[in-house]
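In the design runs reported in the main text, the only information available to the sequence generator was the tokenized backbone. The following block is the verbatim input for one such run; it is reproduced so that readers can re-run the procedure and compare outputs position by position.
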């Protein structure tokens, strides 16, 4: 069965499986196999998902049964080292691949929640590569959130040994980083000098003709 046929089968069949029949196989003629996991075992129709992460497939099926999935890997699950952000990104990609309506927005919300955490492990080059390998410009929800987070962690990311290789493979990541670069004080290319803002305590670039700080609290201050 081709990948397109598989996706069509999944999206058309799974929504007919009732929540209370989770993993029972009763009244279902569709068996789904992913890695060592088997769902709704049947002797009739079988679908094998060799390319997908079993943990992500499990949560996709839970969603199809009306169960709110846990976006964190359990300690006993294979691949438990996968970060919550990566897991939810994989679920988002699965939802897009198999056209599981509603799951994309749920996975995107859980992904954003994880990306807002302060942990230094939230974003890394592997996650950036996965997202840019599996999403497109027209499906940019995860990309937008990744770029936003990358701005906040740029010193750490830029110090990674493989950053140049990632940018070479995914130049759109670098372009989106530049296009969305936060604006501080760069209204014009007029001469600037430095000063300490009494409002935020930051030493910023001050425009000589219209002195102000990027915090917005103080303007026209002498330095």
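Verbatim output:
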């Amino acid at each position: 069965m081709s990948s397109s046929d598989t996706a069509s089968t999944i999206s058309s069949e799974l929504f007919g499986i009732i929540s209370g029949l989770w993993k029972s196989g009763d009244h279902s003629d569709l068996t789904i196999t992913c890695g060592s996991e088997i769902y709704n075992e049947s002797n009739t129709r079988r679908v094998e998902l060799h390319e997908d992460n079993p943990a992500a497939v499990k949560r996709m099926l839970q969603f199809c049964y009306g169960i709110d999935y846990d976006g964190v890997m359990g300690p006993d699950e294979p691949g438990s080292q996968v970060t919550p952000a990566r897991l939810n990104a994989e679920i988002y990609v699965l939802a897009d691949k198999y056209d599981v309506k509603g799951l994309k927005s749920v996975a995107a919300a859980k992904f954003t929640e994880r990306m807002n955490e302060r942990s230094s492990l939230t974003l890394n080059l592997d996650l950036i590569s996965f997202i840019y390998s599996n999403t497109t410009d027209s499906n940019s929800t995860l990309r937008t959130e990744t770029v936003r987070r990358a701005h906040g962690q740029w010193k750490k990311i830029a110090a990674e040994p493989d950053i140049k290789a990632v940018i070479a493979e995914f130049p759109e990541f670098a372009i989106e980083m530049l296009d969305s670069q936060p604006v501080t004080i760069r209204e014009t290319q007029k001469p600037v000098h430095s000063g300490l803002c009494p409002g935020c305590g930051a030493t910023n670039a001050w425009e000589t003709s219209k002195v102000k700080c990027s915090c917005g609290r103080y303007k026209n201050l002498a330095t």
